[in-house]
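wait is this the right file?? whatever heres the structure
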């Protein structure tokens, strides 16, 4: 048992190249158009994601795109080509800014916005663009777009009955992994907390189909299907107060995801750090975003 196989493959996985296909010098910077640092920093991280940039630099998407009106893939394709082919030291990212409310209707030009939220909406809009014209697809087939193959994975939630040890699995697609850093001082410690089994009893009991009654269980998340590019989001903003958890959270240049996956067999799964997006400021209501990319 496990996840169902896709009924259709929307983009051939062998066409995704994880290394730069053309040697690139650093492209243009992005002018701040009035509180657009959240947008600029996300765009730069996406621009320097090699498998995405390779595809967008080929102009392959726009050559076959039949979408009427707004298409996030066409917009990103135009933006990435402009940045990486420009001789200017910096450009104005109007291509993206002009469609801000199409990416997320609550975004407002001139307002300070959340970079993680903008990243989530942008990647989601790119995924929707790749699914355009492909209706009624099963979940596994939806995960075969180039966007989901690059950024997406699947989490497995395993519930184990503490009475009879029966196991129930469910799967959930993700485009990024949110990590709680309240008690963790490193990304690896936060990942260990993320996959730690949680005991559910009392009001949180589950109905076990084998015992046919409400029972205490454990619930554990693991990464079942790995993305090619892992996006980790550190939850530094407290839910209701907006206060920021400003402590140092260490992260390695090379991260082994093997301890956090569902299947325990296999070799180390090393991911190399290539981009970091930083918020500078004391709360979620103010501050400045910038990024480092390789």
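ok assuming it is, sequence goes like this
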């Amino acid at each position: 048992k496990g996840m169902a196989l896709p009924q259709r493959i929307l983009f051939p996985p062998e066409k995704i190249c994880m290394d730069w296909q053309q040697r690139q010098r650093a492209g243009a910077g992005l002018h701040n158009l009035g509180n657009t640092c959240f947008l600029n920093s996300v765009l730069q991280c996406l621009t320097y994601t090699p498998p995405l940039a390779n595809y967008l630099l080929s102009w392959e998407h726009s050559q076959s795109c039949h979408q009427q009106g707004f298409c996030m893939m066409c917009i990103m394709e135009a933006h990435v080509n402009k940045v990486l082919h420009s001789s200017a030291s910096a450009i104005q990212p109007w291509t993206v800014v002009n469609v801000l409310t199409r990416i997320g209707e609550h975004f407002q030009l001139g307002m300070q916005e959340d970079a993680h939220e903008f990243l989530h909406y942008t990647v989601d809009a790119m995924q929707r663009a790749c699914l355009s014209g492909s209706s009624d697809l099963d979940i596994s087939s939806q995960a075969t777009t180039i966007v989901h193959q690059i950024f997406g994975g699947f989490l497995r939630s395993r519930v184990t009955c503490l009475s009879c040890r029966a196991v129930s699995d469910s799967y959930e697609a993700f485009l990024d992994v949110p990590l709680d850093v309240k008690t963790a001082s490193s990304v690896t410690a936060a990942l260990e907390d993320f996959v730690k089994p949680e005991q559910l009893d009392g009001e949180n009991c589950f109905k076990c189909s084998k015992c046919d009654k409400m029972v205490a269980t454990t619930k554990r998340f693991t990464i079942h299907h790995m993305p090619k590019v892992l996006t980790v989001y550190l939850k530094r903003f407290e839910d209701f107060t907006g206060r920021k958890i400003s402590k140092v959270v260490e992260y390695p240049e090379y991260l082994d995801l093997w301890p956090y996956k569902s299947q325990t067999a296999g070799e180390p799964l090393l991911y190399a750090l290539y981009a970091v997006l930083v918020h500078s400021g004391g709360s979620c209501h103010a501050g400045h975003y910038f990024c480092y990319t390789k």
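Residues 88 and 137 are 43 Å apart (CA to CA). so i think its the right one actually
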